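Protocol step 4 of 6: structure prediction from sequence.
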Amino acid sequence: MTQPTTDTFRSEVLTLEVEDHVATLWLDRPEKRNAMGPAFWADLPVAMAAIGADPSVRAAVVAARGPHFSVGLDLVAMAGIGGEPGGDEPRRPSVAARARQSRAEILRLQDSVTAVAACPVPVIAAVHGYCIGGGVDLIAACDIRLASADALFSVREAKIAIVADLGSLQRLPGIIGLGHVAELAYTGKDITAARAEAIGLVNHLSADAAGVVADARTMAAEIAANSPLAVQGTKTVLSGGDGRTVAEGLDYVATWNAAFLASDDLAEAMTAFAEKRPATFTGR
């Protein structure tokens, strides 16, 4: 099957727009408070692949239609997660067979969220209203998080007898620290936007839903004005530093720059500086 582009991507629950080098991916199921059902999990990685493959896109924003960013997993629509394997065998599948199927399904959902983190361009989350469970998994995979003053966050899985398994427990410690993650995950409590900003979950707050989308797009435009080679290289080096010592990270970035420093964008930056004008980058 041909990979959809940003022009051809279609979804019942997501809407993709591209303008001035910035892609905006809307969670677009407002009547269900953007609950994450089967279509969301299937379409999210396709959308992110389309964004990453579009050479005109230099930054992306993930935002939401309706009063809430997302209430997380659609528990009704996803009730069959990890269902029994098919086949002609008349007897009930073993516990091991059912567990294997359940694990495969969880890994599939994890891959959907990881597609956001793996996107080559920076991704900014613009959060308003509820951001619960899977919503937190999603924004944790983004590079930058902004929120409206009314936003409410919750790693709520423990309250419904689930261990959070789509990335919050793995990504949040590097964002807000292990102590804050433990508090949120053990209690399942809601935290306000002000608390989220105080612990570093979000970079800053906007007045309302429209304001946070506008602020996210402004930030994305700032990013898009820079050399896409340098921005995407910076994202690669930042993510490549996970699990590495400082010395290993320095060695990695030295190798990266040895390969990519001699670009047309660098020549343009030097020329623009000498001519006292803004640089116009092409990504070459």
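Step 5 (inspection) to follow. The beta strands are 14-19, 22-27, 59-64, 123-127, 130-132, 144-148, 152-154, 190-192, 205-206.
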